[in-house]
Amino acid sequence: MTRMLIIGPPGSGKGTQAERISERLGVVAISTGDIFRANVKGETPLGLEAKKYMDNGDFVPDSVTNKMVRDRLNESDVENGFLLDGYPRTTAQVDYLDEILADGDEKLDVVLQLTADDEELVHRLLGRAKETGRSDDNEAVIRHRLDLYHEQTEAVVAKYADRGILTRVDGIGPIDEVTNRVMQAIKAAQAA
Ligand code: AMP
């Protein structure tokens, strides 16, 4: 049983690593960005609301995001643990997640932060924009998403560091190498 978070700036490869961790640990990976994108594609009311923010690189408001996460964490496939990717991104979301977990008498085991420098991230994301055509992957929006990460999500990381459950992994390098680092870091954190 593992309950963990993966946090990293846009372009750090957290989605790719989350899928691999999920396979290896046998826990479900839940990406708030993926849930939003699926809703945008399906043109659901949630998707139409979220799209307004996502296209500008802004955070979707907590009133929308928090409820969506609570509902997802109440589904039955989460009983064996979970890996949350892309949530929490603000300290208010940390408080909300604390409440959800406390309600279920649960706690987080590991918080993994993938690190990479901004210029490398901008370069990667501009490359991804060409491949995927993601509407939030143009340079102005990319820089705004990075700014939000520094302004808001680094405070989230600091909170988990204070709690002693943060482990940092260098996200630069070949994907398999980063996965090896990630799996080692998780193992070490679980053994601690
Ligand atoms: P991601 O795929 O994690 O980069 O997320 C893509 C976009 O979805 C973000 O730029 C936000 O607009 C939105 N989003 C994802 N997770 C959250 C969250 N925890 N809080 C607010 N907005 C989010």
Walk me through this protein's architecture.
The longest helix has 24 residues, at 139-162. This protein has one domain: 3-Layer(aba) Sandwich (Rossmann fold), CATH 3.40.50. The protein starts with a strand and ends with a helix. The protein has 192 residues and is α/β, with parallel strands linked by helices. It has helices at residues 14-25, 32-41, 45-54, 62-73, 91-103, 118-132, 139-162, 175-191; strands at residues 2-7, 28-31, 81-85, 110-115, 166-170. The chain is built from 8 helices and 5 strands, in the order βαβαααβαβααβα. Adenosine monophosphate (AMP) is lined by residues 10, 32-33, 36, 53-54, 57-60, 65, 86-87, 89, 93, 136, 145.
Helix content range of the residues, please?
Answer: 55-70%
The succession of helices and strands, N to C, reads EHEHHHEHEHHEH
Counting helices, strands and paired strands, the structural category is alpha/beta
Reported for the largest beta sheet, the result is: 5 strands, parallel
Mean pLDDT: 95
- What is the CATH architecture term? 3-Layer(aba) Sandwich
What oligomeric state best describes the polypeptide chains here?
A: single chain
- CATH topological fold name: Rossmann fold
Number of helices, where a helix is a run of at least 4 consecutive DSSP H or I residues:
8
Q: Return the CATH class.
A: Alpha Beta
Provide the list of bound ligands, each named once: adenosine monophosphate
Shape verdict: globular
